[in-house]
Design goal:
single chain, alpha/beta, Rossmann fold, five-stranded parallel beta sheet, 12% strand
């Protein structure tokens, strides 16, 4: 895509990210939860956000259904549209990152190429990849939205895990087996990994309610 010559970014004139982080008393990161539909990404993301809020962190959670019902409602589920979906999400995440906000992303993100694109856009130092792992049969048993059943019936095309592949992350920062751990245990494991990376020195944390 050819870039217009009339675009003139003004990044150097906006308030610096470091100053916004000092105001918020936190280090911004993008926490990207990837995994099959039904693996537990949204449940973990929402619970993680609540726990971080209790500790005084400012966060923004982005979820597949919410994004596709608004910003990306013009996109389908073919490969090109899926790539564009992730590209836009990564660019939004970068905006939140530059605002000093911790972003929690809950998206299938099925291929290594998509995850690498997101990492490149966000920046490797600010991208935390968490593989929410549950076997396909467990995800199908959960199937709270009835999507696997429809995919098996041929009512949904390009459904990840059925007629569209999912490539497990080769080197995630953290892997959570939601078929072996409770939600509470899973979130505690994520907190132990994430808190040292987002906590600013001498930050007073709120007590848990």
């Amino acid at each position: 895509m050819k870039r217009s010559r009339n675009i003139h970014p003004v990044f150097e004139r906006v308030v610096k990210r470091e100053d916004k982080e000092k105001l918020l008393k936190q280090h911004a990161k993008v926490i990207w939860l990837t995994g099959l539909s039904g693996a537990g990404k949204t449940t973990l993301g929402a619970t993680l956000e609540q726990e971080l809020f209790k500790r005084g962190f400012l966060t923004q959670m982005l979820d597949g259904d919410n994004i596709r019902s608004g910003l990306n409602k013009n996109l389908g589920f073919g490969l090109e549209d899926r790539l564009e979906n992730i590209r836009r999400i990564a660019e939004i995440s970068k905006l939140f990152l530059n605002a000093g906000v911790i972003t929690i992303n809950c998206f299938i993100t099925p291929t290594e190429a998509m995850r690498q694109m997101a990492r490149d856009i966000v920046g490797a130092n600010d991208y935390i990849e968490i593989y929410v792992n549950a076997p396909l049969e467990v995800c199908e048993q959960r199937d709270v939205k009835g999507l696997y059943k429809k995919a098996r019936q041929g009512l949904i095309k390009n459904f990840t895990g059925i007629d569209s592949p999912f490539e497990p992350p080769k080197n995630p920062d953290l892997e959570i087996r939601t078929d072996q751990l409770t939600v509470e245990q899973s979130v505690q494991k994520i907190l132990e990994y994430v808190l040292p990376k987002i906590t600013m020195k001498n930050k007073p944390l709120f007590e848990k309610r």
